[in-house]
């Protein structure tokens, strides 16, 4: 998914974490139009004003449930990415993915679409012409560490993820490991991502890795985390030092976590880099490839989308600077 803001703010994050104790911090989403001012709205909880990352998770959008009957639904033209992985997760609906590697995949509920941008890729996302009435899901980015951010781009679709169920609820592992269940998805940092659904009136005790920091993004109404209600589309940050969390229902959420990402990074528009020059090069390369339709560029060409690719916003008038992963000194 693209960050389609025409005047994207500089996002600076990374740097070693200094707190290793459990905590609770509620991260409220901000509304962002997806695809233009008249497009569907999404709620963005990462990057947040004060906390920009959870482990290597650096971007989290939540959308729906949106009634798109008789409407175009999601329409995100071809756009570039560098230095990150995109994670697509649906609760309802369908999204058609195309990329410059030639991949064409239909994203469905309960299936993981994972795209590793590495040194550069382009993709589009759209609701198919004959699409279900409802669209409901999440789109997330994972920052690639420095020694992997220039890997060859690749795409994975996992339709059969590890899933465990008890009377208390169900856990589906998207990335990393929860208990004895491990996802087959490629990961480049110690990380975890899982959908957790608790049954009505039950509490599911979820094992956690104490060295990780964790957060839970609420996907459906009724979710509680350690007895605290978390409204749909809101994220509760849990800090580090926990061996378990109690997820109450009815409700579901995405558990996100990982070792604190110690590298300082700059995230601007759809690029993750380490300094201003790297971001400027990524933008210039995209604009050159987009205007020339150059399949030999670092991004390639997305074929099959009915419309032109997205143009990159202008760079800000000041130098983009890598700073700490949270607001304030770090």
TrEMBL record:
It comes from the Bacteria. InterPro entries: Pirin, Pirin_C_dom, Pirin_N_dom, RmlC-like_jellyroll, RmlC_Cupin_sf. Residues 308-317 have a biased composition (Low complexity). Residues 46-142 form the Pirin N-terminal domain. PANTHER family: PIRIN (PTHR13903:SF8), PIRIN-RELATED (PTHR13903). This is Pirin family protein. Belongs to the pirin family. Residues 308-330 are annotated as: Disordered. Residues 195-290 form the Pirin C-terminal domain. Pfam families: Pirin, Pirin_C.
């Amino acid at each position: 998914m693209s960050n389609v803001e025409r005047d994207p703010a500089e996002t600076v994050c990374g740097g070693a974490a200094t707190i290793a104790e459990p905590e609770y911090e509620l991260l409220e989403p901000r509304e962002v139009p997806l695809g233009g001012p008249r497009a569907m709205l999404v709620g963005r909880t990462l990057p947040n004003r004060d906390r920009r990352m959870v482990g290597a998770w650096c971007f989290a959008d939540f959308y729906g449930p949106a009634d798109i009957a008789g409407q175009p639904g999601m329409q995100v033209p071809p756009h570039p990415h560098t230095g990150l992985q995109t994670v697509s997760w649906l609760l309802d609906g369908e999204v058609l993915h195309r990329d410059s590697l030639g991949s064409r995949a239909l994203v469905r509920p309960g299936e993981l679409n994972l795209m590793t941008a590495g040194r550069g890729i382009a993709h589009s996302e759209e609701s198919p012409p004959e699409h279900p009435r409802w669209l409901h899901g999440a789109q997330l980015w994972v920052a690639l560490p420095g020694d992997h951010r220039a890997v060859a781009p690749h795409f994975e679709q996992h339709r059969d993820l590890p899933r465990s169920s008890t009377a208390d609820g169900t856990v589906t592992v998207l990335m990393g490991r929860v208990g004895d269940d491990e996802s087959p998805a490629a990961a480049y940092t110690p990380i975890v991502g899982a959908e957790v659904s608790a049954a009505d009136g039950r509490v599911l005790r979820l094992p956690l890795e104490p060295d990780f920091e964790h957060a839970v993004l609420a996907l459906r109404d009724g979710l509680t985390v350690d007895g605290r209600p978390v409204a749909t589309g809101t994220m509760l940050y849990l800090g580090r030092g926990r061996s378990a969390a109690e997820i109450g229902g009815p409700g579901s959420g995405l558990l996100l976590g990982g070792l604190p990402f110690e590298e300082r990074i700059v995230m601007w528009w759809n690029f993750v880099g380490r300094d201003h020059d790297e971001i400027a090069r990524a933008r210039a390369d995209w604009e050159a490839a987009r205007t020339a339709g150059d399949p030999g560029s670092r991004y390639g060409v997305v074929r099959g989308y009915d419309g032109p690719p997205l143009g990159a916003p202008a760079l800000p008038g000041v130098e983009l600077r890598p700073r700490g992963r949270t607001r304030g000194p770090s």
